[in-house]
Amino acid sequence: MFRVTRRYGFAASHRLHSSELSEDDNRRLYGKCNNPYGHGHNYVVEVSVRGPRDGATGRAVDIGILDELVRREVVLPFDHRNLNREVAAFAGGGPVLVPTSENLGLEICRRLKRNWKQVFPGEWPKLEKIRIGETARNIFEVGADEID
Amino acid sequence: MVITRKVEFSASHVCRDPNLSDEENQRIYGMAANPHGHGHNYVVEVSLMGDPDPLTGMVLDLKELKAILKREIVEPYDHRFLNYEVPPFDREVPTTENIALDIWRRLEPRLSDGRHKLHAVRVYETPDLYVDYFGEPACSA
Fold it and tell me: Between chains, do A57 and B128 touch, taking CB under 8 Å as contact?
């Protein structure tokens, strides 16, 4: 069994602010990340896929198909965007998530999982996990099994 | 406990199946199917799992591991055209998966004894694409 991991990136701005908390509590909890004007990161996303090697091609996953899926579901909608205003999961008009890396990781995993069978209809490859880093020093990992 | 040692080699390859047409190869392997070949700076991380020897405090002497990796991977692979010079890639397509599998096969008999065993082989083709192989049956067909 092989695990193939591909790294992608996008640049986006966000603000960590919970509507459930007071202004003071938000400032205390999120610190600099609560700056009302927002701030940005060069996010790095690693997508790991698991599967056996196909006997004919010698590959476990068609990287072109994976690239296209991630581009469509993650890079295009997130890159050079304000997450709090332009990405539905974090923008107004319903229950919204604070765009922490944890929630961003869950949202990315959810998007890939939701569209997986459309591009990879067979038993393999399976989405195994994604890792997301806001900066090189903080990495968040979400297993595909952890979400619906 | 898992210990990991990293080595690098530079090599050229081409991903194409001689039984397929140019169009099919292009469709499956994309730019990697260019018949003239192209190259990468490969990075290989080899992980062993085991307990430290109570006498030495080491799972395996890293000097010894380094020498094995040099002999089994770097010397045969470095500055070679894999398809022409490194079997089994005269008959198997040198995808990153197949390279990880071949490295596993080269190392496994050298690195597994009572105290430790080969745990994983990670091969980076570029910093943005890598494969982990853990040694289970590898072929779906």
Answer: no
Structure tokens that stand for B110 in this block: 């050298």
CA distance A5 to A129: 9
Q: Dump pLDDT digits (tens) for A21-78.
A: 999 999 999 999 999 999 999 999 999 999 999 988 999 999 999 999 999 999 999 9
Which residues of chain B lie closer than 8 angstroms to A3, CB-CB?
A: 131-134
B85 touches chain A (CB under 8 A): no
Q: Please, what CATH class does the domain formed by B2-133 belong to?
A: alpha beta
User: B129: which 2 tokens?
Assistant: 């694409």
User: Taking the domains of chain A in order of start, what are their residue ranges?
Assistant: 2-146
Q: Is it true that the peptide bond before B88 is cis, omega within 30 degrees of 0?
A: yes
CA dist A97 and A61 (Å) reads: 32
Nearest partner of A1 among B84, B140, B112, judged by Cα: B140
Nearest to A144 by CA among A134, A135, A131: A131
The closest alpha carbon to A127, from A55, A63, A50, belongs to: A50
Burial class (CB in 10 A: 0-12, 13-18, 19+), B107: buried
Q: Which CATH class is domain A2-146?
A: alpha beta
Is the Cβ of B131 closer than 8 Å to some Cβ of chain A?
yes
Q: Is A121 on the interface with B (CB under 8 A)?
A: no
Q: Which residues from B are below 8 Å from A49, CB to CB? A: none
Predicted confidence (pLDDT) per residue in B34-79, tens digit: 989 999 999 999 999 999 999 999 999 999 999 999 999 999 999 9
